[in-house]
Amino acid sequence: MKMAARPTPAANLAARASRAPTAQSHSGEQAVRWRGATYLLPALLFLGLFFLVPLLGLLLRGVLEPTPGLGNYEQLFASSAYSKVLFNTFAVASLVTLFSLLLGFPLAWAITLTPNGWGRWLLNIVLLSMWTSLLARTYSWLVLLQSSGVINSTLQSLGLINEPLAMVHNLTGVVIGMSYIMIPFIVLPLQATMSAIDPMVLQAGSICGASPLRSFFKVFLPLCRPGIFSGGLMVFVMSLGYYVTPALLGGAQNMMLPEFIIQQVQSFLNWGLASAAAALLILITLVLFYVYLKLQAESPVASSTAR
Amino acid sequence: MLLSPNAMGRRLRYGLFCTTAIIALFLLLPIVFIVLLSFGSSQWLIFPPPGWTLKWYGQFFANEQWMTSALVSLKVAVLTTICALALGLPAAFALVRGRFPGRELLYALFTLPMIVPLVIIAVAVYALFLKLGYTGTLFAFVVSHVIVALPFTVISLINSLKLFDQAIEDAAVICGASRLQAILKVTFPAIRPGIVAGALFAFLVSWDEVVLSVMMASPSLQTLPVKMWTTLRQDLTPVIAVASTLLIGLSFLVMLIAALLRRRTSPTR
């Protein structure tokens, strides 16, 4: 249940992958076996009809429209405006991953340290923020960060700045808003990794004379690595495909791939180019997700936490 | 040493405490801010507000568009929940109990809508419904929401179904119940936390969905997030803060239910 209450897709996937199939009390009998499979049909039919077929249809348009061939892909990579979109997408995703890791790490650490006191409060705050409507949070940042917003007026009244800082409709706004949204997705897997670490290992380090700083970098951090990698990769992948927050907090100068796709479809009706960009985004996402699954399978700590 | 609060040294402990307190404030800031702002009297969202008022709530509830869109949201979310359960329950049973070939692959297929970026699903489904002439219908909303809600429902159903010992259901069958009776009377009550969690996920995914809904919406049919989205792009009126506050209230409620459920189910595990 605890697992189910956390919608980190990959954590669940990993939990399942690492678990051997439970023993079935009903074996044998072909008929029983295939009758079980028929229960899948409604859902499969639904996904096939409304998810897989449209998805393949979309991908096909990239090589068929406006003329058959790879023209859309050439355009995507040749035009400097479009490659800037690609670069932006990766830059924003990298920055967001970095910041959410920096902010998520202490949280996960404190939650692991005191699971019943302060840590429980922190976990609840993380969960509350995760469950709060995405639009509500983004709107709030929009108001907070605008030039007449609280942050600017506070800084001005403190005399720290003279002119309001431009923190919205640019890279800063996107990175603040998205890092904020991604923190829970770092904290939850990282905390699972940390709570699986045997405190004795760290104690052994300090008995052998390691300073706290040394045992942090030489023992603690390496043991946290599976959680850092899997959480970070997940956040990176999610950030690549985010639309709402970049569209509201970002400016025209730093458009990302998802926004580009929507713009091509809605404003320019250029389905071919949109579909080529979509194919690229899917490819990157799936490759990174595959790496993620590989990492999960190989990390001993992560597999021991999977229940 | 770094993992036991008493042995880690006071300086480090206070350092970590203060750091996390600041980050926790950062996490709470936008949520608290927006709730306060919805009661502020300033049209320009000045903070701290010059006075407190319920004016914006009045405007929200008096505005037919906001009310209709909230109602549409509710309708879509309930229908999505029902469909996700109706499709997800049999699928979860088949995936957990069936022993047919390709199960792992099928499971991966069910989680795929969670991995593929929403924008791409939105554009793909939009293209399909555009061809069929279904955009701007309730059907389009529900179908697109079920696609993204289904993985969450199926996963939580599978997780709780795996914890259930099928021998208990078999015992009921041996005692004379039919398989269907046994499932309805024995298995369903036992996996109820999973069903409720699956339903809550489906509801919340649909309730909060922006990207798909923006693509499916028409001027005459839109959900609350779509109305917020279109209003947001014009101006930052405090009425959006009201809508946000109501959404936050709902999320809070759902979280509370989930927490209660977790507490109730934990002794059995």
UniProtKB/TrEMBL annotation, chain A:
Alphabetized UniProt keyword annotations: Cell membrane, Membrane, Transmembrane, Transmembrane helix, Transport
Keyword Transcription: no
Subcellular location per the Swiss-Prot or TrEMBL entry: Cell membrane
Family annotation (Gene3D superfamilies): MetI-like (1.10.3720.10)
Record domain ABC transmembrane type-1: where: 86-292
Bias kind Low complexity: ranges: 1-23
Membrane topology term: Multi-pass membrane protein
Main location: membrane
Keyword Endoplasmic reticulum (UniProt): no
InterPro entries to which the protein is assigned, alphabetical: MetI-like, MetI-like_sf
Residues spanning the membrane: 39-64, 85-109, 121-144, 165-188, 228-249, 269-293
Region (Disordered) residue spans: 1-24
Family indicated by similarity: Belongs to the binding-protein-dependent transport system permease family. CysTW subfamily.
Protein name: Spermidine/putrescine transport system permease protein
Organism from which the protein derives: Pseudomonas cuatrocienegasensis
Automatic annotation (TrEMBL), chain B:
Keywords per UniProt: Cell inner membrane, Cell membrane, Membrane, Transmembrane, Transmembrane helix, Transport
Pfam family, one: BPD_transp_1
Xref: InterPro entries: MetI-like, MetI-like_sf
Signal peptide range: none
ABC transmembrane type-1 domain segment(s): 70-258
Keyword Transmembrane helix: yes
Places the protein is found: Cell inner membrane; Cell membrane
SUPFAM superfamilies: MetI-like
Membrane topology: Multi-pass membrane protein
Positions of transmembrane segments: 12-39, 76-96, 105-129, 135-158, 195-216, 236-261
CDD domains in UniProt: TM_PBP2 (cd06261)
Similarity comment text for this entry: Belongs to the binding-protein-dependent transport system permease family.
Annotated protein name in UniProt: Spermidine/putrescine transport system permease protein
Species: Pseudomonas cuatrocienegasensis
